[in-house]
Amino acid sequence: MDLSVMFFGADDAGGGGRHAAKYDEILTIARTADELGFTAVWTPERHFQQVGQVFPSPPVLSAALAVATERIAVRAGSVVLPLHHPLRVVEDWAVVDNLSRGRVGISVATGWHSTDFVLAPDHYADRRERAHRDIGLLRRLWAGEAVEFVDGTGRQTAVAPQPAPYSPRLPLWLTSSGNPATWEAAGRLRTNVLAATIGQTRDELADKIARYRAAYAAAPDQPGTAERGTVTLMAHTYVAADDATALSTVDEPLRAYLRSYVAQTAANRAGDGRAAALDDAQLDQLAGFALRRYLSWGSLLGSPDTCRATLTDLAELGCDEVACFVDFGLGLDDVLGGLRRLGALGKEVTA
């Protein structure tokens, strides 16, 4: 079982230099995770919302993380592929790969929020098909293959991206919000899969992992892929000395984060409108319910013993890596203290 650090963005820092301070915190957390032996640090792609204000560009931030760390993998969780030309994705990440000496990986996301697609409005309706189709193209371009595209004169021209990456293989994940079809697609495409424990039961997750493993085993060999795929699950994480301390520490920031996330969902014009209709009391009730679910299964919120049991359960389920979601509103000292306790626990679990 590998343990990584996941940033997903709970930031209402605003202006006045406070976003600069947030980047300082991210660098501090990444350096600490590197020193503690965590496998990877993941940064998301987020646009135009309160949740994730400081994460519009994973490759830009990852370039800073690459030079600030020594051994930890630097990954995008995720790249919303329909918002970008595949050539530009490969160019950007090849730079980060060289800066990090081969430590990059990216998780491809289809995108979900309608407002994000002001960057590529014509790509919203068929975003899933575009993302899945372009995964093979990413692999070809990363390998240095020249591929034909239409140039400024309207004619086809063969282009090979530069610079050449440091690593010959680009580790790829496919991000799933829970749809079993996405897990099966990841298997057919022979990508790894990035998902979350939240929003599904243990039995549902076991079924999705089984579907993924079967699809991966049945898929034909594809250049640059591993014999077995990696299942990475994101989980809210704070390890404290005891369960009561963990709960009292995370209660308020996690409730606030959940309220912000619901507000972001309500702003999605492709949604069903139910989230937008909730009043403050209903939002508080929903946040409390979600918090109780997190504590009942699938989170790393609690004492070392509680979190050890969760990690053991996830490993038995078929999870290969837990991406520990740490920036849901905790203070920097709490995040770092929790990481140190988790790092010690991780050495037991991975031994």
From TrEMBL:
Gene3D superfamilies assigned to the protein according to its UniProt record, in alphabetical order: Luciferase-like domain
Glycosyltransferase as UniProt keyword: no
Domain of life: Bacteria
Transmembrane segments annotated in the record for this chain: none
Residue stretches making up the Luciferase-like domain: 15-320
Keywords: Monooxygenase, Oxidoreductase
InterPro entries linked to this entry: Bact_Lucif_Oxidored, Biosynth_lucif-like_mOase_dom, Luciferase-like_dom, Luciferase-like_sf
Pfam families the record matches: Bac_luciferase
GO cellular component terms, A-Z: cytosol
Keyword Hydrolase (UniProt): no
Molecular function via GO: monooxygenase activity; oxidoreductase activity, acting on paired donors, with incorporation or reduction of molecular oxygen
NCBIfam families: seco_metab_LLM (TIGR04020)
Name under which the protein is recorded: Siderophore biosynthesis protein
Species of the source: Actinocatenispora comari
Lineage: Bacteria, Bacillati, Actinomycetota, Actinomycetes, Micromonosporales
